[in-house]
Every structure is written in structure tokens, then in C-alpha cells.
Design a protein that fits this description.
The chain is an alpha/beta fold and about 325 residues long. It is built from 12 helices and 12 strands. The structure holds nicotinamide-adenine-dinucleotide and 2'deoxy-thymidine-5'-diphospho-alpha-D-glucose.
């Protein structure tokens, strides 16, 4: 297949591209705006065509989609805390960008897969969301992602565009930008910096190793029914505090680094996805959280050249704004 992968220079997109080249021999065009979270280095050594543009740019998208069999859209602003501080780009990329991509797919008659998130369902104290659960997003991030999902569904219903939506739970693994819980805690632990736990730390997330999500997306692309959404959840859930304690153990950091900080406004308590529908297509998560976390810590320990430039750049200003003090060297 020839795939147009939007947002392919980010964390999950670049892992997806790796899996497609390695296991499927696809031809891949990556279109990416290279925001703070997108990096050409994430695609180093991979045989892909690269287009530097935003998905909200109709001309660039029309050119990039030529000859594609399918569009897979990862392109997004993805950090909840940033959406609370500055929602603008979230609205533009998720609403306008998704619409531009859908229009281009419609004009070109190309299949469309939207990468979405469990956060569109909101928080759930017990049990799990199914694909029939109502959308009840809490943050500007999840609200604009839910808006994008509805736009995708409308293109199926109105124009018969063959669309599918994949809603993933919390991903972790190599090349995740260190604003997210796991890489942030790993790098802070390695540097002896405080480990900032929001609120009481008892919020629960359902952890999915990034290659498992990449394979799940491939499964839905190959076998999903047009017009449908598929939840892709991880095999294990874990309260944040326990995640941080495991990182302390794996890095050998001092437990006194654990620091309770002000909670995230509107913080969702728990996410949980029922993934029976994607399992019926033949997908199963392969990596348990305990193993994946150990591998992820090892990856960050072994790949300083990947994260050192990030920690010395704009990230420092972001970190100071978000956490109230700069990172120590
Ligand atoms: P990321 O922040 O690491 O990467 C996002 C990528 O999109 C970057 O390469 C960035 O440059 C690019 N991008 C941003 N705005 C763009 C625009 N307007 N045009 C083109 N490119 C643009 O994000 P990620 O964690 O890899 O997430 C990828 C997708 O998966 C997102 O749609 C996200 O909502 C979804 N998702 C993420 C998770 C998770 O736990 N990280 C879980 C479920 C779903
Ligand atoms: O559930 C899928 C979603 O997972 C994706 O759609 C999002 O793109 C992705 O960012 C992620 O959202 P979360 O808000 O769950 O992830 P984050 O890593 O920001 O936070 C995970 C949990 O850890 C959450 O309860 C907040 C908490 N946290 C996070 C940070 C960054 C802390 O306690 N301290 C922190 O410093």
C-alpha cells in the first residue's frame, strides 16, 4: 500500500511508520508540520518521502495525497496541559486540519483512518467504555479530538467516504516527548529532579505499548468496517503514583524526589476502554505494562542523543511555565 501518514514525525506516528515499513513493505509519505513535538530525527534511516506542511494547508495536502491508497491521520496537538494553557492550535489542527484532510480524501476517493483517543469518552470510575458510549470530553484537547471524530463520521454518512476511527488509550514507549507522564518522570529521575505528581496521584490510566497501538491501527486499516470506530486499549491499568514508584525503582532514583503538586484543572480520574471489537478483528496487545515500562526506561537510558537536545531547548521554558521552576542541568 501507499500510505499518506499525517503527523508521522511524532511519537506514535513514527513508530507506526517503522512497523509499516518493517512488517508490510508499504510505501510511505509523511506529511508533518514539525511542531515542537515533531522531529525529523524520529524518521532517521527510514525510507519515506517527507512533506513539511500542516494538515490545514489544502494545497500541500492535495499534492501529498496523490497516488495514496489510504490516509492515516496522527497529526494533532496532544498534550492536555498545553490545551488548558493555550487551546488555539488545538482548535485549528483538530477542526480545520481534519476537515481539510477529509475534503482531500473525498476528492481523491481515498480511504481515511482517524487516530483518536479514549479521552473523547471522558472519565469513568468503574467499568469500561465501549464504542457506543456517549462522547463526553473534559479538556480543550479531548473536546477538539471529539469534534474531529464527529466530522469524520459525518463524511461517512454524508459522502460515503470510507472512514474508520481508532481510539487508543495512554501510549508509552520510545520517542515520546518528555512532557508526558512516563518520559517526564524517567528523565527527571535520571537527573535527580523532582517528580511532580498531580493532586493525590490516584488517577488511573490504561497503558498501551506504542507498537501494540501501531499494529492495532494497521489491523483496523486492513479489516475495519467503514463508518465504524474501534477502541484500542492496553492490557493493564495503573494509578499514576504506582507508575512513578516503578520508575523510581527502575532508575534507582531517590524516593524523596516524589513531589505532590497542584492538580490539573478538570483532571479526568480514570480512563478505561473495552477493546472487544478490535479483538474480534484479530488484534491483541502483546506487551504487558511491567515489561514495556522496563524497556522504555532502558530506551531513554540508552538514547541520550535523542532527548538531550529537547531538554536544552524550548522545553525548558515550557517546563518553567508548567511546573514553576527550570530544570537543573
Ligand atoms: P505527538 O505530539 O508526539 O506528535 C504529533 C505530531 O503531529 C508531531 O509530529 C507534530 O509535528 C504533528 N502535527 C501537529 N500539528 C500538525 C499539523 N497541524 N499538521 C501536521 N502535523 C502536525 O503525538 P502522539 O502522542 O504521537 O499522538 C499521535 C496521535 O495519536 C494524536 O492524534 C493523538 O491524539 C493520538 N493519541 C495519542 C495517545 C497518546 O497516549 N500519546 C493515545 C491515543 C491517541
Ligand atoms: O488517554 C490517551 C491520552 O493520553 C492521549 O490522547 C493524549 O494525547 C496523551 O497526552 C495522554 O493524556 P493524559 O493526560 O492521560 O497523559 P499525561 O502523560 O499528560 O498524564 C498522564 C497522567 O499523569 C494524568 O493523570 C496526569 C498525570 N501527570 C502528568 C504529568 C505530565 C502527573 O501527575 N504529573 C505530570 O507531570
Amino acid at each position: 500500500m501507499r500510505l499518506l501518514v499525517c503527523g508521522g514525525a511524532g511519537f506514535i506516528g513514527s513508530n507506526f511508520v517503522r512497523v509499516r515499513l518493517r512488517d508490510h513493505g508499504d510505501e510511505v509519505v509523511v506529511l508533518d508540520k514539525l511542531t515542537y513535538a515533531g522531529r525529523r530525527e524520529n524518521l532517521a534511516g527510514l525510507d519515506v518521502e517527507f512533506v513539511h506542511a500542516g494538515i490545514e494547508d489544502p494545497g500541500a495536502v492535495a499534492g501529498a495525497i496523490e497516488g495514496a491508497d489510504a490516509v492515516v491521520n496522527f497529526a494533532a496537538e496532544t498534550h492536555v496541559d498545553r490545551s488548558i494553557a493555550e487551546p488555539d492550535a488545538f482548535v485549528t489542527t483538530h477542526a480545520v486540519g481534519t476537515w481539510v484532510l477529509l475534503e482531500a480524501a473525498r476528492q481523491a476517493g481515498v480511504r481515511y483512518l482517524q487516530v483518536s483517543t479514549d479521552e473523547v469518552y471522558g472519565s469513568i470510575e468503574e467499568g469500561s467504555f465501549t464504542e457506543r458510549s456517549p462522547l463526553a470530553p473534559s479538556s480543550p484537547y479531548s473536546a477538539t479530538k471529539a469534534g474531529a471524530d464527529l466530522l469524520v463520521a459525518s463524511y461517512f454518512h454524508t459522502y460515503d467516504l470510507p472512514t474508520v476511527i481508532c481510539r487508543g488509550s495512554n501510549n508509552y514507549g520510545p520517542r515520546q516527548y518528555p512532557e508526558k507522564l512516563i518520559p517526564l518522570m524517567i528523565l527527571n529521575a535520571l537527573h535527580g529532579d523532582p517528580l511532580p505528581v498531580y493532586g493525590d496521584g490516584l488517577q488511573v490510566r490504561n497503558w498501551l505499548y506504542v507498537e501494540d497501538f501501531a499494529r492495532g491501527i494497521g489491523h483496523v486499516l486492513a479489516h475495519g468496517v467503514a463508518g465504524e470506530a474501534y477502541n484500542v486499549g492496553g492490557p493493564d491499568e495503573c494509578p499514576n503514583l504506582e507508575v512513578v514508584r516503578r520508575i523510581i525503582e527502575l532508575t534507582g532514583a531517590d524516593e524523596s524526589l516524589l513531589t505532590y503538586v497542584k492538580d490539573r484543572p478538570g483532571h479526568d480520574r480514570r480512563y478505561s476502554l473495552g477493546s472487544e471489537k478490535v479483538r474480534a478483528l484479530g488484534w491483541e496487545a502483546q506487551v504487558r505494562f511491567a515489561d514495556g515500562l522496563e524497556e522504555t526506561v532502558a530506551w531513554y537510558q540508552d538514547n541520550r542523543a535523542w532527548w538531550e537536545p529537547i531538554r536544552s531547548g524550548d522545553y525548558r521554558a515550557y517546563y518553567a511555565r508548567q511546573y514553576g521552576s527550570a530544570i537543573k542541568d
